[in-house]
Design goal:
The chain is an alpha+beta fold and 321 residues long. It has helices at residues 56-65, 97-108, 126-135, 141-162, 164-173, 179-189, 278-287, 301-309; strands at 8-12, 24-28, 33-42, 46-53, 67-77, 86-90, 116-119, 193-195, 207-212, 215-227, 231-240, 249-258, 264-266. The protein has a 7-stranded antiparallel β-sheet with strand order 1-6-2-3-4-5-7, with helices on one face. It has a 6-stranded antiparallel β-sheet with strand order 8-13-9-10-11-12. Helix 2 (97-108) crosses helix 3 and helix 4 packs across helix 5 (164-173).
Length: 321
């Protein structure tokens, strides 16, 4: 198990039937996402989970003084309509779900561990525990993304963070993604960007890229409102920033696309790309309006727009996709 962050996907789930015993599950914690192993399913959307638990005070003091967390069981009731619940699907899963549960139980039962866990916020947190139970190797996608984001920000600013080609190169350079995923991504990101210079470049069903909150941002054009000599006003679907205390949400928005070259058209088309027809692109985009499952690097504006536009064969992740 390489720990490649592209070989491990966080899949949003919307019902209890989509979760299995032995799954690596993710849900919102007090400060950051919390990870656990599902031990058993109970009636009424309740689950028994095994987790590396720690208090916020324990996390803070542990950064400076070191602190053991407790591996224990708890029962959780999930509201799938309001909570962002995800299951981690693995392209390669060395241990079965049954074996994964037993590996987690070994910690609880004190099989050489006494239920203790040498907790470290960046190098041995609850996600490291869950990935270890599934794969035998401790790694954290959250920490990997944080470190990569920090590195890219200091070198290239906000634009560097949002440039997928740069991210792909850096991820492979630092061993964050495997060679196979690097090559797949390279082909996918090698789309031509054409500066938009005239109204004819802005059409329904197109994918456009522009600077949004100082980050590169993709959107799907749903409809054209009016045309001006200097710009086109159109309606788009995109993952919008809705405020510091609000979740990013896919919304229908109004946007002026200027003919000054700052807006780019992503030239997806045959033979390099197998695309949906215009009405299907718009239908797919409209069908996800209101969604609040934003995740940087794995379900952001570019992932949403490509999903609307491209017919892509689904990779096999843990027999879930």
């Amino acid at each position: 198990m390489s720990g490649c962050i592209e070989c491990v996907k966080a899949i949003p789930v919307f019902s209890a039937c989509e979760i299995q015993e032995g799954d690596h599950i993710v849900f919102a914690g007090t400060v950051y996402d919390h990870h656990a192993i599902v031990e058993s399913k109970l009636p009424d959307k309740r689950f028994e989970i095994i987790e590396a638990s720690n208090t916020f005070f324990g996390v803070v003091t542990g950064v400076f003084f070191g602190k053991k967390a407790i591996i224990g069981k708890s029962t959780r009731l999930f509201n799938f309509a309001t909570q962002n619940i995800r299951v981690i699907a693995y392209r390669v899963r060395p241990f079965t779900r049954k074996e994964t549960v037993q590996r987690a139980r070994n910690f609880v039962e004190g099989d050489g561990t006494s239920g203790k866990y040498d907790y470290d916020l960046l190098d041995n947190n609850c996600e490291h525990f869950a990935t270890y139970c599934v794969t035998g190797r401790k790694f954290s996608i959250q920490v990997t993304k944080f470190r990569l984001t920090s590195s890219l920000f200091w070198k290239s600013g906000f634009i560097g963070i949002s440039d997928e080609s740069i991210r792909n190169e850096k991820q492979h350079e630092h061993g964050i993604i495997c060679k196979q995923c690097f090559e797949i991504n390279k082909l996918l990101f090698d789309v031509n960007f054409m500066p938009i210079k005239k109204a004819a470049d802005v059409q329904r069903g197109n994918i456009i890229r522009y600077s949004y909150w100082n980050l590169w941002h993709d959107a799907v054009i749903l409809d054209i409102k009016d045309v001006n000599e200097s710009h086109v006003t159109c309606y788009i679907a995109h993952y919008a920033f809705c405020g510091i205390l609000s979740h990013r949400t896919i919304i229908r928005d109004e946007l002026r696309v200027y003919f000054d070259g700052s807006f780019k058209l992503l030239e997806y088309g045959p033979p390099d790309y197998n695309v949906y027809d215009i009405e299907n692109v718009i239908e797919r985009a409209s069908g996800r309006l209101g969604e609040q499952q934003f995740m940087l690097f794995s379900n952001d504006s570019s992932h949403f727009s490509r999903w609307c536009k491209l017919k892509r064969e689904k990779a096999t992740y843990d027999d879930r996709l």
